[in-house]
Amino acid sequence: MSDTTAITEFQIDVPQAELDDLERRLAATRWPDQLPGVGWDYGVPLDYLKELVEHWRMGYNWRTEEDRLNSYPQFITTIDGQTIHFLHIRSPHADAMPLLLTNGWPGSFVEFLDVIGPLTDPTTHGGDSADAFHLVIPALPGFGFSGTTTETGWSTDRIAAAWAELMARLGYHRYGAQGGDFGALVTPQLGRIDAGHLVGIHLNAASVGFIPWGEVPDEELGTFTDLEKARLERLQNFLSEGNAYFQIQATRPQTLAYSLVDSPVGQLAWIVDKFAAWTHTESGLPDDAVDRTTMLTNVMFYWLTGTAGSAARLYYENMHSGSWNQPRVEVPTGVAVFAEDYAIRRFGEMGHNIVHWTDYEEGGHFAAMETPDLFVDEVRGFFRDISGDDRG
Fold first, then answer.
1. Half-sphere exposure in the Cβ direction for 131 (13 Å, CA)
2. What are the helix (H) ranges across 37-155?
3. 241-250: string of b/e by CB count within 10 Å (b at 16+)?
4. Are residues 141 and 359 in contact, defined by beta-carbon separation less than 8 angstroms?
5. pTM of the prediction?
């Protein structure tokens, strides 16, 4: 009988035939037309995407990126019937705190590449050994090298239960957790189901549980600060002008999957649209916030693994889970709100034990990728303040 709790070393090794197929598909793209002078108002502009695709086809080297990714220790294990791929980077400091990092959509562990070194080995990156972490960075079920999900029900609640099992399987009995986007749903749920093992939780790109549902009454709106009003306005604009992807993935992920899994340009445009909308740049171009090579590598995680459809299903599973009335999270909670985020503290405090809150004028949805120094300082500061001697 096989050991279903086994942890196996993993290396990314994409067959050359898949890379050749990608190049062929990119070269054979059937392009749509575009109205003149509309910029980004209708979506990703044709000229911009054509140039980015040509760079992907001729200037991007997956093998170089594959070597870079494989320089980090990777593993797979099976939890609740689902393959889970994860990075596990031990700090050279033996008493480092275990820290679980969870990204969201349309991300991958690529988001965290620039913060791995400073978080695991702070003494070589201008920090103190007391701020060291052992990092565990899993790929969400249905995302990347965790592979497609094979049954319904993989909501963020179920993922949190899998993460608790993963940390126990690795022998970490006290740990911290950090998450953004969907990670900011998984991580508070960990605080509910695994509170006895958590030192604290830290969130960025938080939405559900940190924003109002429906209209804000005039009497409450009158008590809002200018910052809160600006966040509410940004949220309302998102719901009216930027929420179509959410509705499609939450209602018709299978229909969407046929296009994204078959067309690399379609997959690229679907993700780049969000990099443009959610990063913090004056130009509006995602390249000005995120390195183009890193952005393409993130897209490759979806393309090479054929997981665009299964990743989209997470929206469907969450919207149909029926688990919206959750108990309060009593684990100490820290929140970082970067410039493009929506979280408003008064709403977050209703369901979370917030002991740390930082508002930034920089950064956006992909904070660890856009502003890695701020992200590292923020995470170090939060866990330093709450942990004391509670490490390992």
1. 22
2. 46-58, 62-69, 113-120
3. eeeebeebbb
4. no
5. 0.96
